[in-house]
Write a structure and sequence with these properties.
Helix content: 40-55%
Strand content: 15-25%
InterPro entries: BrxB/BrxA
Organism: Paenibacillus artemisiicola
Order of helices and strands: HEHEHEHEEH
Family: Belongs to the bacilliredoxin family.
Shape: globular
Largest sheet: 5 strands, mixed
Number of strands: 5
Protein name: BrxA/BrxB family bacilliredoxin
Structural class: alpha/beta
Pfam family, one: Disulph_isomer
């Protein structure tokens, strides 16, 4: 019995996707979906660049989950998956200038403009609680 590599990867990655979608975060899996949602998102939008690495599992996704428990949160919640939905991720990263590609990473946008960004190096050496506190502070500043 053989399984295609693509099917194997989809099965392996699905729980990592589910960590965010079960929070109500919408996956943007194509460049067209990114173009449809990000530029016109009125108010605030959180964009999580998800990945398979340990810091995504141990710090990024749990930190986002904790932050979304706060009273103030973004109007829109989106995610792209680096290494899996490559074209969608590349399109989303166009909105994160001047920051270089980084995964995982977390962007907060307001009316289509980047206002807060957490790069991988700010994720891998901090706890989920510290990332949640960073995001909650940004929510308090921009999601009023």
């Amino acid at each position: 019995m053989s399984m295609s590599f693509e099917r194997y990867m989809l099965d392996m990655i699905q729980p990592m996707r589910d960590d965010l979608t079960r929070l109500g975060i919408e996956e943007l899996r194509t460049p067209e979906a990114v173009e449809e949602k990000l530029p016109g998102a009125q108010g605030t939008a959180l964009v999580v660049v998800n990945s398979v690495c340990g810091c995504a599992a141990g710090q990024c996704r749990p930190g986002v989950a904790q932050a979304l428990q706060s009273d103030l949160k973004p109007d829109h919640l989106f995610t792209v998956f680096a290494g899996q939905d490559k074209e969608a991720t590349a399109k989303a990263r166009e909105y994160f200038a001047p920051y270089p590609p980084s995964s995982p990473s977390i962007a907060l946008m307001k009316d289509g403009e980047l206002v807060h960004f957490i790069e991988r190096h700010q994720i891998e050496n901090r706890s989920a609680a510290e990332i949640a506190a960073d995001l909650t502070s940004a929510f308090e500043r921009y999601c009023q």
